[in-house]
Design brief:
The complex is a heterodimer. By secondary structure, chain A is α+β, with helices and mostly antiparallel strands. Chain A contains 2 helices and 11 strands, in the order ααβββββββββββ. Classes of the chains: A alpha+beta, B alpha+beta.
């Protein structure tokens, strides 16, 4: 009985309680405000992220800097429980178009080494507002109609996917 | 500085953070009622219906979650669906759960309009279907804004508007 009690509560129950509290609080703070665990679902980010892979989003990544081209970001819908994972390919104020699968930013073709399959997608030129980013998945081998992409407001970007 | 001098303030700060989280997460009775109502609707949509009659009964029950003049606006490309009867007709034609269809509601936020007779709700609804061949699930998620009104007792949905994440 004594051994069981000691195994459950430790040598000093008060200290054990404090440790549990600290651990719970640190976990809560970490996973609520710092790191968001996500599980990729779907094929739109292939081959960079496989469906079913577990990843972490750094919610503080953009607290001191703005998102950059090439960043893979989590984009919220109504909240953080279901998010899109997409790559930023154009920044606020830039002009973007896709012609036969090639992305042009401000009229200049950009290099995308992460894209392995490419279908001849066409997107007419759009100019992003100062609050908009253009995001898209890495899998351009699928039909454009089956792929969610486009302009998003900066307020929807909740962080950078770190791995 | 001793360990106690470090641990004690740290524990107090963590306790304060926990208290703030709990305080911010508290709900009013009406908010809880709305969440329960939406959860019940989700259960109703996902409920299995083995035959045609059960489907009609289920559609009638789903209709009870909407006002007579309810409007469902799914955005560009689809005209708004108007009226409870239209919605019930559509619900009756929904494939039952046995067809491996499931609706989930996440990130539900409720804001009561002053007066307490209406509420604005934002949520993510996802429709999960399983491939009969592979069993693999595919999820189609979308954000919606709902207006609920308290009419004849329970909360009922008077408007659903789809919100586009991408423009």
């Amino acid at each position: 009985m004594n051994l069981t009690r000691r195994l459950v509560f430790g040598r000093d129950p008060r200290r054990t309680a404090v440790r549990i509290l600290v651990l719970a609080s640190v976990s809560l703070i970490t996973f609520r405000w710092v790191l968001l665990p996500i599980r990729a679902e779907g094929i739109s980010m292939l081959p960079t992220y496989q469906s079913g892979s577990l990843n972490l989003v750094n919610r503080l990544a953009y607290s001191s800097r703005t998102p950059s081209r090439g960043d893979v970001v989590a984009i919220r819908l109504a909240g953080p429980h279901l998010v899109y994972v997409k790559r930023i390919i154009a920044l606020p104020g830039e002009r973007l178009s896709i012609a036969k699968g090639q992305v042009h930013v401000n009229g200049v073709p950009i290099l995308e080494p992460y894209v392995k399959n490419r279908r001849p997608w066409d997107v007419p030129e759009v100019t992003l507002t100062p609050r908009e980013y253009f995001v898209i998945g890495d899998n351009r081998g699928m039909r454009a109609a089956d792929h969610d992409f486009g302009r998003v407001d900066v307020s929807r970007i909740i962080g950078k996917v770190v791995f | 500085m001793t360990a106690r001098q470090v641990v004690r303030p740290t524990v107090l700060v963590l306790l304060a953070v926990l208290a703030v989280v709990v305080w911010r997460g508290r709900m009013t009775d009406e908010e809880r009622a709305i969440r329960d109502r939406l959860s019940a609707l989700r259960g109703e949509v996902n409920a299995s219906a083995a035959d045609g009659l059960a489907n009609v009964t289920r559609a009638a029950r789903i209709g009870g979650y909407f006002t007579d003049e309810a409007v469902v606006d799914l955005g560009e490309g689809a005209p708004p669906i108007r009226g409870r009867d239209t919605l019930m007709g559509m619900a009756a034609r929904l494939q039952p759960r046995t067809a491996a269809f499931r609706m989930d509601l996440d990130d539900v936020s409720v804001e009561l309009v002053p007066g307490g007779e209406a509420a604005d709700v934002i949520l993510t609804a996802s429709f999960v279907s399983s491939s009969v061949a592979t069993g693999e699930e595919s999820r189609d998620a979308r954000e919606f804004a709902l207006v609920l009104v308290k009419s004849d007792g329970p909360w009922r949905i008077s408007r659903i508007t789809a919100i586009d994440t991408f423009r």
